Write a sequence for this structure.
């Protein structure tokens, strides 16, 4: 039994290729090997996958939420509530699984492993047992990573509130095949030429995505002008999106 076996993409809207706009990485496309990928649960009940990727000898870490607190891996389209849109975190993790193993997140087996994880109460890393997605370990992956500017938050009572203090964080925006440069959406469409890879790089390389809620001026945008985002369209999924390249 896997922690993620219920998180199938059946019935969800297909993911599309859309361009959006510590010492964080500059926005860009990075190739790395997966050192760890393990499941977790938030205090509110949402399921997450934490990734540790070796990028040029440095560890890139990010925790992506693959469900909400209700255990759903989707939200309803605001314009058509009959359509289930996959959570961004779920799409990223599912794409990583498909590109590296040929199987979706829902088909990934987990094994209990003990690794050092930072404990906020102990204020240090402590050995912790986690459900590890073992088939992902050691696999190479190419990630489109964004440098994002956002407000910090602080806890007031039982809730966290946004404060004016700022920070830069990294988020995985897109996943590419490490050799073919294809996205899952392109492979799903049977495309052989990776077009979105270079379009994403042109749009995002070196930019800072402004997601602050508290600031002077207008709503945040990327530091480069925005253009219409190319989309990959839809197609019927095949058994193996990337053939023998997985």
């Amino acid at each position: 039994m896997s922690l993620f076996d219920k998180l199938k993409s059946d019935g969800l809207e297909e993911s599309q290729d859309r361009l959006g706009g510590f010492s964080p990485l500059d926005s860009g496309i990075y190739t790395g090997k997966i050192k760890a990928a393990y499941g977790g649960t938030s205090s509110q009940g949402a399921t997450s996958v934490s990734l540790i990727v070796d990028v040029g000898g440095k560890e890139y870490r990010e925790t992506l939420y693959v469900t909400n607190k209700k255990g759903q891996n989707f939200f309803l389209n605001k314009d058509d509530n009959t359509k289930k849109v996959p959570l961004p975190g779920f799409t990223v993790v599912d794409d990583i699984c498909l590109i590296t193993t040929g199987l979706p997140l829902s088909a990934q087996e987990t094994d209990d492993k003990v690794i050092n994880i930072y404990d906020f109460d102990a204020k240090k890393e402590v050995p912790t047992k986690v459900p590890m997605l073992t088939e992902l370990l050691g696999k190479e992956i190419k990630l489109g990573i964004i440098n994002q500017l956002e407000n910090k938050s602080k806890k007031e009572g039982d809730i966290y509130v946004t404060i004016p203090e700022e920070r830069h964080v990294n988020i995985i925006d897109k996943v590419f095949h490490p050799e073919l440069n294809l996205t899952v959406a392109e492979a799903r469409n049977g495309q052989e030429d990776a077009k979105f890879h270079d379009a994403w790089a042109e749009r995002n390389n070196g930019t800072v995505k402004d997601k602050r809620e508290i600031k002077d001026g207008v709503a945040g945008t990327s530091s480069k002008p925005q253009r219409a985002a190319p989309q990959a369209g839809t197609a019927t999924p095949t058994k193996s999106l990337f053939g023998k390249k997985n």
Q: What stands out?
A: The beta strands are 28-41, 47-55, 58-65, 74-77, 80-86, 111-119, 124-132, 140-156, 159-176, 208-210. Residues 28-230 form one domain.
